[in-house]
């Protein structure tokens, strides 16, 4: 064999060389192990997005329709652990479709909010009414959703906002306000996405790009 011939590992051999790292949930979810993922280099894990359900964290089967997206921002090679931040969430499409009824209305609001500690999040909030409402009523309901959630976010830390959004506290608050002007059947935070994080230089896009031998994202 020529001395210039490169030695190449097969796919199975490359797989065997990979280590498995335990994925740790964010502080808001208790820093608990949720799953594991392989990698041949720890720095390559940074930025990887892990999808789990709320059921995986709580053991409550009624929350299996809530999908959580966690992004790895830090890796500890010695402990073989990868730490995550909340990247966003989305309700299962089948669950959302099941909430739609004939002769009723669905009002959706998509907007950005900023928490009191400087995180920027884009929630998608939906309200389902008991009966079909007119354009003016839809406008009023959407206004209430946006104003109330914006106010709540400005008074909560990032973790507090995520907790209230995921576990339904804020949806209930919206429900209680909207029902004052029109009969409501359901309110849900259908989706959310983390857009920016606070840094010493100001807000920075919540984008993590892995770099060789860098084991922690610089924006946190």
From TrEMBL:
GO molecular function, one term: structural constituent of ribosome
A single BP term in Gene Ontology: translation
Keyword hit for Ribonucleoprotein: yes
Keywords for this protein: Ribonucleoprotein, Ribosomal protein
Tree of life domain: Archaea
Alphabetized Pfam families for the sequence: Ribosomal_S3Ae
Family named by the database record: Belongs to the eukaryotic ribosomal protein eS1 family.
Protein's name in the database: Small ribosomal subunit protein eS1
The encoding gene: rps3ae
